[in-house]
Write the structure tokens for this entry.
Amino acid sequence: MQLTQFTDLGLRVVMRLAVDRSDTRPSSKEIAQQLSISYTHVTKVITRLSEMGVVDARRGRGGGLAITELGRTASVGWITRRLEGEGEVVECEGSNPCPLRAACSLRSALKSAREAFFASLDTVTVTDLTAPPNRGVLLALPDLGAPETRTPQTGTGTDSSAR
Ligand code: SF4
């Protein structure tokens, strides 16, 4: 099964934020640069993560992004299900419906496989994903929010919709 790019980007953002110190709140722009993701995509995924309660996004001075306790302890399956949505593995209906859909065994088998995929991810937490050696890679990302590298525009804080 292939995840949508939206879900993969969401998990990247979650992993990145999970290794931040509690006094650090990077901007969406900084996260986009660090993870080599377009700023537009980052803002969309952060909006969704914020709606889910996984990311705390604040505007204005002292604003920025932080992972929540829910995000830190959530299972990857829980996050992935919500980012992926309820869609099926294959498009059986749509504008050109499949003629086999009335009693297709493949459709139900794929649905079961999808559930098994998510169930496997239910055993993994965000904390697991940010353990070594991945933690070292995440911590080695450029500290774009450090005072000596922060640009004037990013010094005013951020949130998902504002940046
Ligand atoms: S063969 Fe089955 S699973 Fe594939 S599109 Fe048709 S109804 Fe859906």
Observations:
- The CA atoms of residues 116 and 134 lie 25 Å apart.
- The domain at 5-156 is CATH 1.10.10.10 (Arc Repressor Mutant, subunit A).
- The chain has a mean pLDDT of 87.
- The two ends are 32 Å apart (CA to CA).
